[in-house]
C-alpha cells in the first residue's frame, strides 16, 4: 500500500541554513569516500580541540547528583542569580533573577522569545549579514524579516538612519548581533546610543545577541546595549557556547531588562512557553556561576600569542597577500568574512565557489549569501583551526581564485 507524500509547512521553503545544509551534507559524502575535509563552516570550538575550562567541568561533576529532577522553567535559581549579578555589574537596569531565562542554548531562546512576541505579519529589523537563525525564527513564527544593511564599506557597522527609515507600523523589534557573526564587527557606543533612541521613539523591543561578548582582539571594546537602554525593554542573549567553549552543553540565557511594567506581558509569555518545554538542560546550568564569576579563560586565547589571535593574524595576512581577496579585519567573534575582488570576482557565485572548494580542495566554507546579504562575493570562515591550517586553506582558496581570474583574463583577451 502506498501513501501520498507528507506535506510540510510551506514557510520552510523560505528558510535557509547553509551552515549545516547542502554543502555540509556533500562534505559528509566525500568523507565517506575516504577524503579528509577541512571544515570551517561551524563555530564549534570542541571540534577543533578546544575544551571547556576545567573549573566549569568540575562545577558540573560536583553537582551531578542533583541534576536528575526537572528544575524551574526559567532555570536553576542559583544560575539565574549568577546571571543577574553579572549583568547588574555591567549596569543593566532592573537585572534580577526573576527576569532571567535559561535555555537549551541561545538558539532555543531566540525562537522562544520571537514566538512570544510576534503576531502574523509583524516585522523584525535584522542586520544584513545576519546569523540566519534570526531570519529563520522570525519566518517560522509568522513574522517578516526586514533587513538593514551593514555594509563592508562601513566596516559592517549599522547605519542608524537606515534602521529608522525601515520602521513601519508593523515593526516590533530591532535585532543587534554584537560582536557580529559573520563579520566580526564590534559596534561603537555612539551607534548603539542612536539605535536605542530609535527604539525608544518607536516603542520597539531591543533584542541583543551578545554571545561573543568577551571574544575581542587588539583594542576592540564591547559595549553591552542594555545599560544604554535604561527603561526601554531589552532582551540580552548570552551563553557558554563561545566564550567558554562549551557548545555541546547547550546552555544559554536571556535577560529581560528595562521597565518591568512595560515588558510584563512578554515576561509572562516567555515563562509560559518555557514551561511548555518543561526546563532547559540541568547539568550545564551548574557551570554558569563558575563561568561568569570565575577565572578569565578567553583573554589568553584572544591576545598576541593566543591561539585565536594567531589564527586571526593568519587570516589578515593571507587576505593582504592575495590579489583576489579583501577583508574587513574582524575585531571580535570567531569568524572572518572575506570578499572576492578583481578578475576573480567577475561572474562570481559564492555557492558555486564553495562547492568547488569542497569538490577540488576538500575545504568546507559557508557562502556569504547564506547570511542574507544582497551580494554574492563573500564567504565565511571560522578562526578556530590552528593558524598553519588556516594558512593552508587560504593557499587552496587562492589557487581556485587564480584559476578563475586567469579564465576571465583569457576570455577578455579573446574578445579583444
Description:
- The protein is an alpha/beta fold and 416 residues long.
- It has two domains: 10-51 and 300-406, Aspartate Aminotransferase, domain 1; 54-293, Aspartate Aminotransferase, domain 2 (3-Layer(aba) Sandwich).
- Helices cover 38% and strands 13% of the residues.
- The chain contains 14 helices and 14 strands.
- The chain has helices spanning 22-32, 54-62, 77-89, 105-117, 132-140, 160-166, 189-202, 226-229, 264-276, 288-293, 299-302, 307-321, 350-361, 387-415, and strands at residues 38-39, 100-103, 123-128, 144-149, 171-177, 205-209, 234-239, 252-257, 325-326, 335-336, 339-340, 363-364, 366-367, 379-382.
- It has a seven-stranded mixed β-sheet, sandwiched between helices. It has a three-stranded antiparallel β-sheet with strand order 10-14-13. It has a two-stranded parallel sheet with strand order 1-12.
- The mean pLDDT is 94.
Amino acid at each position: 500500500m502506498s501513501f501520498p507524500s507528507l506535506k510540510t509547512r510551506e514557510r520552510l521553503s523560505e528558510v535557509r541554513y547553509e551552515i549545516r545544509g547542502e554543502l555540509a551534507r556533500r562534505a559528509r559524502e566525500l568523507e565517506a569516500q575516504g577524503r579528509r575535509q577541512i571544515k570551517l563552516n561551524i563555530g564549534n570550538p570542541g571540534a577543533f580541540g578546544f575544551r571547556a575550562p576545567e573549573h566549569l567541568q568540575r562545577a558540573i561533576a560536583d553537582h551531578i547528583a542533583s541534576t536528575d529532577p526537572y528544575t524551574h522553567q526559567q532555570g536553576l535559581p542559583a544560575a539565574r542569580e549568577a546571571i543577574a549579578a553579572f549583568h547588574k555589574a555591567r549596569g543593566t537596569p532592573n537585572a534580577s533573577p526573576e527576569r532571567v531565562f535559561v535555555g537549551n542554548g541561545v538558539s532555543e531562546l531566540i525562537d522562544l522569545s520571537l514566538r512570544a512576541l510576534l503576531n502574523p505579519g509583524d516585522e523584525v529589523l535584522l542586520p544584513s549579514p545576519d546569523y540566519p537563525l534570526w531570519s529563520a525564527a522570525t519566518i517560522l513564527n509568522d513574522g517578516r524579516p526586514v533587513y538593514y544593511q551593514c555594509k563592508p564599506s562601513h566596516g559592517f557597522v549599522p547605519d542608524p538612519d537606515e534602521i529608522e527609515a525601515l520602521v513601519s507600523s508593523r515593526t516590533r523589534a530591532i535585532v543587534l548581533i554584537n560582536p557580529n557573526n559573520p563579520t566580526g564587527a564590534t559596534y561603537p557606543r555612539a551607534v548603539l546610543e542612536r539605535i536605542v533612541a530609535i527604539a525608544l521613539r518607536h516603542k520597539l523591543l531591543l533584542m541583543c545577541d551578545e554571545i561573543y561578548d568577551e571574544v575581542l582582539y587588539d583594542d576592540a571594546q564591547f559595549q553591552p546595549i542594555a545599560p544604554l537602554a535604561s527603561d526601554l525593554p531589552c532582551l540580552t542573549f548570552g551563553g557558554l557556547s563561545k566564550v567558554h567553549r562549551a557548545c555541546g552543553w547547550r546552555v544559554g540565557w536571556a535577560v529581560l531588562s528595562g521597565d518591568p511594567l512595560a515588558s510584563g506581558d512578554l515576561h509572562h509569555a516567555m515563562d509560559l512557553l518555557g514551561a511548555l518545554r518543561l526546563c532547559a538542560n540541568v547539568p550545564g546550568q551548574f557551570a554558569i556561576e563558575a563561568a561568569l564569576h570565575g577565572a578569565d579563560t578567553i583573554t589568553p586565547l584572544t591576545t598576541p600569542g593566543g591561539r585565536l589571535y594567531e589564527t586571526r593574524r593568519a587570516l589578515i595576512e593571507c587576505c593582504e597577500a592575495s590579489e583576489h581577496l579583501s577583508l574587513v579585519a574582524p575585531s571580535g567573534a570567531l569568524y572572518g568574512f572575506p570578499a572576492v575582488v578583481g578578475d576573480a570576482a567577475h561572474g562570481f557565485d559564492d555557492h558555486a565557489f564553495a562547492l568547488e572548494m569542497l569538490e577540488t580542495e576538500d575545504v568546507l566554507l559557508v557562502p556569504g549569501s547564506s547570511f542574507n546579504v544582497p551580494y554574492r562575493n563573500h564567504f565565511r570562515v571560522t578562526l578556530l583551526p590552528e593558524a598553519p591550517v588556516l594558512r593552508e586553506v587560504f593557499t587552496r582558496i587562492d589557487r581556485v581564485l587564480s584559476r578563475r581570474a586567469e579564465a576571465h583574463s583569457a576570455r577578455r583577451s579573446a574578445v579583444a
